[in-house]
Amino acid sequence: MNPAIGYTAIVGVALVSALIGFYGLRVSRTTSDFYVASRTVRPWWNASAIGGEYLSAASFLGVAGLILLTGSAALWFPIGYTAGYLMLLLFVAAPLRRSGAYTIPDFTEARLESPWARRVTSLLVIVIGWFYIVPQLQGAALTVRITTGLPSWVGSVAVAVIVAVVVAAGGMRSITFVQAFQFWLKLTALAVPVIALLLVVGGGEPPAQLTPAEAFPPSAGPGDLDVYRTVSLMVALLLGTLGLPHVLVRFYTNPDGVAARRTTVIVLVLLSVFYLFPTIFGFLGRAFAPDLAASGEADALILLLPERLVPGPIGDVLTALVIAGAFAAFLSTSSGLVISLAGVISQDLLGGSVRGFRIAAIVSTVVPLLVALATESSGLAGSVGLVFAFTASTLCPVLILGIWWRGLTSRGAIAGMLTGAVLSGAAILGGPFVATSVPLIAPYLEQPAAWTVPLAVIVIVTVSRLDRRGTPAGTDAFLTRLHVPER
Amino acid sequence: MSDAPTPPPRVRVTAPRTAGGTSARPVRSSGADDPAGDIAAVYVRSLIRSQLRLAVTVAVGFAVATVLFVLAIALVPGLDDAYLAGVPVSWVLLGAGIYPLVITVGGLYLRAAARNEARYRSLAEDE
């Protein structure tokens, strides 16, 4: 690949992001500007902004790569990423907006009237955010290595530095229209190449490397389904979405609970449209670039395919477009996460000052950067899937029970969150080591959500029932506020 | 967003309000200190129950529909051998078929949840 294209696209996106960041200082909204100004935000804008923040490296690069690598089992990832918002709509959207809580720790503290529940939640949010940023940085490493030939660490460091500087300078990512713009940029950066590639391929030139029967064998098809893994993955993705810190913050910008619901339905539409394109990319890859799966570069499929199928300047433009879209995905998701994390860290540990926020923003970026540099990417969609499993086992049960079950107590919530964290964390971290020696239990460790989520719920309910202190005094009033319509 | 006629003045706040969910909005139910409050509390509980029932029903319905859809893809013969633009129909169906279901289910829920709230409101206003 011509490195000039890579440099141009990456530097362009980085410059635009940094410029908007510094310009954003003037119209800056730090975390809580949402409280007032954003009440005018329309559901369409808000939904685009949620999409812009949500679609990460896993969605942009990982889905197509995984389809190329594993076949139709990978199609469950975008389904889960989308349907997670259905669960969010059903169980969380309107009540959470009405709660007035700005972050998940705010919510647990208000609901459970316990600073300890808040601290445990904050800790989990920080861990989840860190491990969600890691795949973004690994995606950046991959993109930089593939497109410019520079060493991998350059990509991770570049994204980390840009994000830390931009967030610490102005926190511009909170501006709804920038995130909304990011969504449409990412959509365009996939849709235009897909349409161009389909036109080229439809002309019969170049010919596919594999026949349809070879490219889409029934053994990798929808009929050959690993039931446990699929169910467990869906539990993780459907429920994990509820607890993502950077997504939740966006809901506060809805004027009321009904608008929060409407926004979520629009998000469903936007994500459904978006995910068609990585899916088509994956299908094209299976027929036209099967060698990438063998060489372990599956996640780079979207970056490499345009150039392979369309040589010449048009191919260069398409390549530049996908590189720009990929970098937009790394930057927007990482900065959304870093803002959420910095908010939590600065508020709980550093007293909530602006200076504290800046320090926290740097800390929130450095830790995942070190992890990303120390570890190898094991497939972007897969690593993000594990973060969803952890979220689903820890924050999601507390959030749902806190909204719908008046019997939840702070001890129950803390016990359940710790149980879910220990079990799913041990399965995720220890799984690769144990799985090789005892292959029989490998699926249960690699996709733990199907058993860790129910166990966490059981612990929460049992401990809450046994808690002699009972439910907090303000529970009824709080639940009333969550569920009663505004007007 | 820029086309709103007069945006409210921006107010800069440096940290979220630590009191958690202290919303300025008044809460309807006053609690258990008077009979009217008791009735209001009953209405609220029935609203929560009906919303929960609705959410669980929709979630289970979605899960069942998805399972049936996947079973149909796996069991209907010939879907692996019929091709649409070079891709087996079974792959196309799994890759694109569940999204319309998700959107439809979401839209139906939106209306039903609003209906529950309208019912609650008319009860509470009769009070």
Automatic annotation (TrEMBL), chain A:
Q: Which family does it belong to?
A: Belongs to the sodium:solute symporter (SSF) (TC 2.A.21) family.
Native species:
Agromyces humatus
Listed PROSITE patterns: NA_SOLUT_SYMP_3 (PS50283)
Assigned keywords, A-Z? Cell membrane, Membrane, Symport, Transmembrane, Transmembrane helix, Transport
Q: Which CDD domains match?
A: SLC5sbd_u4
- Which InterPro entries would you find in this protein's record? Na/Glc_symporter_sf, Na/solute_symporter, Sodium:Solute_Symporter
Protein name, as recorded = Cation acetate symporter
- In terms of one coarse class, where is the protein primarily found? membrane
Supply the PANTHER family for this chain. Answer: CATION_ACETATE SYMPORTER ACTP, SODIUM/PROLINE SYMPORTER-RELATED
Query: How does this protein sit in the membrane?
Result: Multi-pass membrane protein
Q: Which stretches are transmembrane?
A: 6-25, 45-69, 75-96, 116-133, 153-171, 183-202, 231-253, 265-284, 317-345, 357-374, 380-405, 417-442, 448-466
Location in or out of the cell? Cell membrane
